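Hey L., structure's done. Input below.
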Amino acid sequence: MMLKRFYFGRATALCAVGLALVGAPVRAQVLDATFQSPDVRAQDLLMKQELVNSVVPDAQGRLLISGAFDFAGGTTCGNVARLLPDGRFDPTFNAGGSGANGLVKKVLALPNGQWLICGRFTRYNGVAVGRLARLQADGTLDATFNPGGTGANYSINDVEIDAQGRYLVAGNFSSFNQRRSRSLVRLLPTGLSDTSFAPDSAALPGSIQKIAVDATDRVLVAAPRYTAAPLVRLLPSGARDATFNGGTLATTLLTCLEVLPNGKLVVSGFSLTYNGAVTPRLVQLLPDGGLDAGFTSALNSSTIRGLVALPNGQLLVSGRIRPVGAIASEILARLNSDGTLDTSFSSPLPSPSTFFWSYAAVPQPNGTLVVVGSFTRIGGQAATGVARLTATGALDTTFANPALDQHTPVTALARQSGGRLLVLCGEGGRFQGISTDPIVRLLATGAPDLTFRPDPALVALLTYYTRLNIDATDRILVNGDAHVGRFLPTGAPDPSFSDGLGADSSVVFTHEGYIRSAVLQPDGRLLVWGDFRRYNGAPVRGLVRLTTSGAVDATFTPPVVGGGYRADDVRLLPDGTMLVRYLNDTTATILQYWLTAGGRPLASFNGGQPLTSPNVFVVGLPDNTILLDGSYQLGGTAFSGVRKVNNRSAIDPSFVLDPALANVYYVFHPQPDGLLLIHIYYDTPHGLSDRLARLTPTGTLDPTFTPVEFGTGYWPESMETLLRADNGDLLVGGGFTTVNGALHPNLVRLTNIPTGLRADAVQMQGIDLFPNPARTTLTLRRATAAPATAALVDVLGRTLRQWPLTAAEQTVPLADVPAGTYVVRVVGSEGVSTRRVVVQP
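Output:
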């Protein structure tokens, strides 16, 4: 069963994670070696898109390939591998090494037999390399390259070498070796920055997709989106070359750039225009940047990803190739020097036909061609990412399949009783060698629970955005595109739950009928949100609450938000209120509401009006306050950055975000004790991504929590979901393959978590409890009779009891509270007070 894929930029799913609240000495969290990380291999190898994106031959005819594959020939290889001339995996390349921990975008052959690789990876064989590494001929890391350097702080998309042996490096980064470098840097052969190269920042976009170096060391720069000038040329000094005039070449995406031996340029992109006139998606430019009128491409409707200039003047073009008049897309085409199609060459069709790319091709001395891309079959034959074609384009069936494979990302986790763990595994596939559904259950040890048999109805609901909700009786609630379902702990359907017609998709509107996610309230009712206009026949606007039987809850009346907005996120607060974000996909604006438990705008917050902003992000805290992040107006005043705010729009001045997190991308994960886990997945200068760290309640980095690095920070190579285990450990799932540089793919358990709240550090001011230890009742004494709320919280962060306080001294019942250690948290106008209490049998 294939889950639907969704690709997005900044992560917005905020998972509430509870850690132990009671006293403990400061400890360093460690990976739990007793937990068996499940080895789940992908069913759909195109989940990570660029399965194989680069191929380069060596002097012996062997082939270096790179991309997004974790295994070749059944061996861990880490996104770069060498194939023997007949296509078989070569196990002697980087033997025993884990390779790169993220996507490798390109392999560049160096004159001395070494290799330069670039991409999104942050480590090679466990060593931090900063998205660029030089390999020895045998695939091991060259430790002499860029010694002590941190590399690029974001993705490197392309790398080239000039006549002086210097490396031109381009991508989406803003610093290299912690020095500001706007998307382009030139390196000396040692890997250190060449300070004599000063690119004209006004000529460079913030993101560069492709570069090329001509015979005189001038650098051509192609931007992915830069409509004013997507193609510029720099002199060897970095200054803009005023003699190069590419006219007003415009495109939404410039995909390929090749300098021909005669000095001309071949450029490809989406929706190309030149001086306002629509051109084919492949054009040839004269050396001065003018359009070559003698070149007419036959590939108007193609999407081109790779170009190779052949010695005879022809061009080998890869991508999704659809010659004029053709219906089906091929993987390769061969063009004559004037751009016309060489009809003597015709490649077979790949599959799956709806989602494939060929990224690169290389001619072989015997006239055959090796092509790589995101495909699993060609011409009806198995060809996983790599194939060889004859000189006329037919599939060469004597070329071996290198058996590439991938891990499947863990996208959601949920806890059932007895330490059992439900795991949603991306696309599903093979779980420890056995074919499995996308949802599996593990025992507390991490071993598979073979008694769990999910019903096909449960599997059919699963999407990438599915959230696993578990109710008080271990029943499983999941959301699909248009329905939610409830299932018994065994995975069988629960006949007592039905949402009827579900979300209505009868009207076409952006994501009409699409349920984004759902969250279970403590009372068993379910909040469902997305882009729909009716639910089970009832008119709603993207947000609905279902009763415990699945019926629409008519008492829940959220605001009617039209104008192209869809409900994009919902967060519950302990007092029953909720934070609801509406997103307009067309205008990219956000309406952020704070609603009552009944769904109405909270009148005391911002006058009952939503925050309107292109980038406001909100998270609820255990004391019923919120953190606002981004740019927004609150009470008519403009703010930017992180502020802690209560439901009366008052800002708490005691919360100040740590200065080390300036210009950093992150997601907050609140703990019930007021501490904040923070997932740092991209930063500008500090080299912190992809880390899990923790903040104190005042916003400073918590020194008792040692940051843990997961993968690269890029989807799907990073952490995606967090969960507190029954014993206080922290489970972390995602698409990462390394943790702190060591090979630990997809799911790990951290144990020995420091709580940050020792017994002598618990806030005791303003509250007294007696008797303590307690049995059937507990008396709370405060210095004020002002209204407040008291809650009894267990070590898992769950609220077991909640009482309104209306007097300075008040006795509350503890009937049926199991014996154990708890925290009493009192929230009132004076702030939050906590005190540990022991309940005896």
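Residues 31 and 746 are 13 Å apart (CA to CA). The longest strand covers residues 820-828.

-- N.
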